[in-house]
Design brief:
Elements: H1 4-29, E1 40-45, E2 48-51, H2 57-77, E3 87-90, E4 93-96, H3 99-122, H4 126-129, H5 133-146, H6 148-151, H7 175-184, E5 186-187, H8 194-212, H9 219-232, H10 234-237, H11 263-272, E6 277-278, H12 282-300
Antiparallel strand pairs: 1-2, 3-4, 5-6
Length: 304
C-alpha cells in the first residue's frame, strides 16, 4: 500500500490528466467551423496547405469514450489506495479486487481444476509415476520453476548444488528418501576443523582426503593426518571414507565433489566448514506436487 502522500499524488496526476484531456477537447473545438471548407489555416509546408476543417466526429467521440472508460475503470478496479467496487472470490469469499487478490483467485481456480489430476498422481508409487510421460512433463515444469535456479535447468548442479543426474546421493536416492528431502529440506553441517587441526594439520588432512579417492597427493602428509581422521572424521564419513547418508556425509572415495576436489578447495572446506541448505518445499508445493517432483528427480538418474 502506498503512503498517503503518494496515493494522493497518483490519484491527482491520473484524474487530473484525464480532466485536462477533456478540457483540451472542448477548447480546441471552440470556434471551429461546423462544416468542411476550402479555407486554410495559413500553414503551408512543401506546397501542402492545412485546411481549416473541424476535428473528425469519430475521433472526438473516441477521445470522449476513452475518458469515460478511464473513469469507469478506476471506479471498478480502484487507483492507488482507493478501492474500486470490483470484487473477486478468494478462499470462497468475495473480496475487493486487487492485483494480488486476482492472482490468488486465478491460482486457486487452477488448483481446483487440476486437483483430481494430482490426486491420481499422489496415489501412484514414485517409481511407477516416473514411467508416466505426462506426469514427467508436469514434473519437469515444476523442476524448472522451483529447482532450476540452484540445480540448473539440466539438473546437473553447480559448485555447492548437487548433480541430480548421477547416482551420488548425500541423503539417499530411493524414492522415499528423495521425497523426504524435497518435502522437509536438509541442513548440512560440516564443522570447521582449523582450530582442532591447525594450519599444517589442515593441509595434511586435505592430502589424506585426496588419497581416499586416488587423487595425486603427498603420501607423507596423508600418513600424518590418518590418526586425526580416525579421531575427528570417521564418525560421519566412516573408516573407509564412504560417507553416511543418514547424516548427509559425502562419500570421499569417488571423484564427485560438491565444493570442488582441488587441494585449495578441500582445505577451504576443512578450514571453514560448509553449511549447505536444501529448503523445504512442503508448504510451498503441497504433498501432491512434491510427489510428482520427486518422481521427476528420481527419473533423472534411472537410466544413468
Amino acid at each position: 500500500m502506498l503512503s498517503s502522500f503518494w496515493s494522493f499524488w497518483v490519484q491527482a496526476i491520473v484524474i487530473g490528466s484525464m480532466i485536462a484531456c477533456g478540457i483540451l477537447i472542448v477548447y480546441t473545438s471552440k470556434g471551429q467551423k461546423k462544416e468542411e471548407t476550402d479555407e486554410t489555416t495559413g500553414h503551408s509546408y512543401d506546397g501542402i496547405e492545412e485546411l481549416d476543417n473541424p476535428l473528425p466526429r469519430w475521433w472526438v467521440g473516441m477521445f470522449w469514450a476513452t475518458i469515460v472508460f478511464g473513469f469507469g475503470y478506476i471506479g471498478i478496479y480502484g487507483l492507488a489506495n482507493f478501492d474500486g467496487v470490483g470484487t473477486v472470490k478468494v478462499d470462497g469469499e468475495d473480496v475487493t479486487w486487487t492485483q494480488t487478490n486476482q492472482w490468488k483467485a486465478e491460482v486457486q481456480a487452477f488448483d481446483e481444476k487440476i486437483a483430481p489430476l494430482y490426486e491420481g498422481y499422489l496415489a501412484t508409487p514414485i517409481a511407477e509415476l516416473a514411467q508416466n510421460e505426462e506426469a514427467m512433463q508436469t514434473g519437469g515444469r515444476l523442476f524448472k520453476s522451483y529447482c532450476a535456479v540452484c540445480h540448473g535447468s539440466n539438473a546437473m548442479g553447480a559448485q555447492g548444488f548437487p548433480n541430480l543426474t548421477d547416482h551420488d546421493w548425500l541423503y539417499g536416492g530411493e524414492p522415499a528418501q528423495i521425497k523426504q528431502t524435497i518435502m522437509y529440506g536438509r541442513q548440512a553441517a560440516m564443522p570447521a576443523w582449523e582450530a582442532a587441526l591447525g594450519e599444517e594439520g589442515t593441509k595434511d588432512m586435505a592430502q589424506y582426503v585426496r588419497s581416499l579417492s586416488g587423487l595425486e597427493h603427498s603420501a607423507e602428509a596423508a600418513a600424518k593426518a590418518k590418526p586425526q581422521y580416525d579421531m575427528l572424521c570417521v564418525a560421519c564419513h566412516g573408516a573407509d571414507g564412504k560417507g553416511n547418508q543418514l547424516v548427509g556425509a559425502p562419500n570421499l572415495t569417488d571423484e564427485i565433489w560438491l565444493y570442488g576436489g582441488s587441494t585449495k578447495q578441500i582445505e577451504t572446506t576443512l578450514r571453514y566448514g560448509r553449511a549447505g541448505r536444501m529448503p523445504a518445499q512442503a508448504e510451498i508445493l503441497g504433498e501432491e506436487k512434491v510427489h510428482v517432483l520427486s518422481a521427476y528427480v528420481y527419473s533423472l538418474s534411472m537410466d544413468k
